[in-house]
Amino acid sequence: MSTFVIGLSLAALLFILAAGLVLVFGLLGVINLAHGAFYMLGAYVGYQIAAWTGNFWLALALAPVFVAAVAWIAERLTLSKLYDREHYLQFLLTFGLILVINELVRLVWGVGYLRVDAPVLLQGSVDFGTFQVSVYRLFVAFAGLAAAGGLYLVLEKTLIGTVVRAASANSAMVSCLGVNVRRIRSSVFAIGGGLAGFAGVIAAPMVPLSLDMGLIVIIDCFLVIIIGGMGSIRGAVLGAILIGMTRAYGQNFIPQFIDPLTFGVLVAVLLVRPSGIFGRKERMA
Amino acid sequence: MTNFKSVALAALMGVLSQGAVADEAFHIGAILPFSGPYAFGGEAAKAGMQMAIDERGGKVLGVPIEVSWEDGEANPQVTLKKGTRLIADDVHLLVGEASSPATLALSKLAGRRKVPLLNTISADERITGSEGNRYTFRTSNDFGMETQMTISYYETARPKSVYAVIPDVGAARDLWGKVKDSLPGLGIGVAGEDYPPLGNKDYAVIVNKIANSGADSVLAVLAGGDAVNFIKQAGEVGLTGKVEIFGPTLLEELTAAAVGEASLGVFSGVRYHYSYKNEQNSKFVAAYKEKFGEVPSVFAGEAYDGLSWFLDTVEATGSWDKEAWVDAFSGSTRDSSIEGVKTMRSCNNQAEQIGLMAVVGRGVGDQPELTMQIVEEFPADALFTDCP
């Protein structure tokens, strides 16, 4: 049971991170390599706010906003010029963003490990009789569920969500209807960055903050969206659960094979569903 | 006159053939991890090396010391590429890397190209063992001595049973294999063992297995981010207060700070420590604090000590012949090391030295908030066998 709860917390964190990537790919068609860098930036900014104020909750509220602002500026200044160009240019650009963000973080915070403590309310563990689970992991699992529910409601039940989905399906048509697609693109990229920043702050009390923390997690994040189907939020939920549980149960039984096992899940899914579980089939001319 | 010319020409040829012509500068190629998982160590090692150079007025053999700093990224391919380029630039000495695989790659290159290589932190035994060569020297600990320290730790601690968390790499598995073989003789059982990959993302499940295993001791052969993750997550469910955790390279001040309170009471070997009592170390620590405003880390101390030792050896030869430096360094004894006396074993170019065991405690005065407190010093002869 403890393994299941730990798997759920891993899945929750992966989902929050992957959701931003899915949104950006779904609407912009851009594979944002800098998503891991936004996650790292969120953790570092969260660290700074928590260090200044001593308040983790304030860090959790403000750091994602800061990262969203950075993402918005990056999109307006750079990515927005490349939507009509070849995909490899967008790819290179987001790779360049990683280098820029990494260097900025290195300049401001240095290369040493940093620490964020969980708030007092979430410290300690819950005893389930035969096993214990840390309160913070339960909180992470809850945050993931809340993020999934919130995204579903916004995308499926609100006018904004309808416009975003429509722009994702056919941005030219939406533009003809008088919607400012450019603004929607910028906003979605900013929200994607904000979600990455949110995941960074959530992860901060569980891991040491370091310059490569984004790189460590982003590979699993890409596995999640490929398994779930590029651009599908439902798929991201399922992909995150699959990867989270694989990592947790793999750790329990065969930790030395955890990485091959995780990639094995990807291969197995793609053999059965080449476009991912909820991926859309593209007609090739 | 003809005879004089012939003699002069012969002398010149002889000198040139030995590569012993004085250069305008002593060129060091330092390949350290300035990015990647050991970036914090690379910056600290750079600071330690700079201290060693500044201390001697920036000169050796009467010429300025120039350093080309390169980022090895703790990556063997990158390190090899940069090493090749530095050798093409005629460096007199290579220093690096921090990651053992990268150091092994660099060592093979140094051996082939006959350029001295100084390693001050990687611990894989093969570097100065089965894959060592005449040109590669290590001035810090190797896993062999850390294996002995681990066995000595269990001889004293005598827990009922041990749970081992070993990264899935050869050197760590070798260490655990030797320790595991010694445990039955000490009446210590093995409650469990896990081999997570290096850079493992999450240890919560393993922590839970340890908690349910009945073990009263954990051997964690982890370092850097892996060690921080493991102890932090063990602390989340209170495991650190229930079992004794030890690892030969588990923590130092930088990583203990990243763990926080959960690191208190964790035992670890330390390769160098700022609190080690000797005159040279006190002088070095005071100068380092004045320059950088903090105490030197393991990476800084080891880099300072190793480079000072090598440059003093070069100076003593009075020669520009790399072969003379290598001959002089191998078998040399360093009485003024900041870790007591060190001897460069002539059989494998591994520095024979003391071993230090510490426990994380609260710092006092100007010490870091969480600091390693030395609890045991192992003499060199307890950790090394004589050269054959």
Automatic annotation (TrEMBL), chain A:
Q: Does the keyword Nucleotide-binding apply?
A: no
Question: InterPro entries, alphabetically?
Answer: ABC_transp_permease, BCAA_transport_permease
Keyword Secreted in the entry? The reply is no
Regions that span the bilayer: 56-79, 91-114, 134-155, 188-207, 213-245, 257-278
**What does the similarity note say?**
Belongs to the binding-protein-dependent transport system permease family. LivHM subfamily.
PANTHER family, from UniProt? ABC TRANSPORTER ATP-BINDING PROTEIN, BRANCHED-CHAIN AMINO ACID TRANSPORT SYSTEM PERMEASE PROTEIN LIVH
Entry protein name: Branched-chain amino acid ABC transporter permease
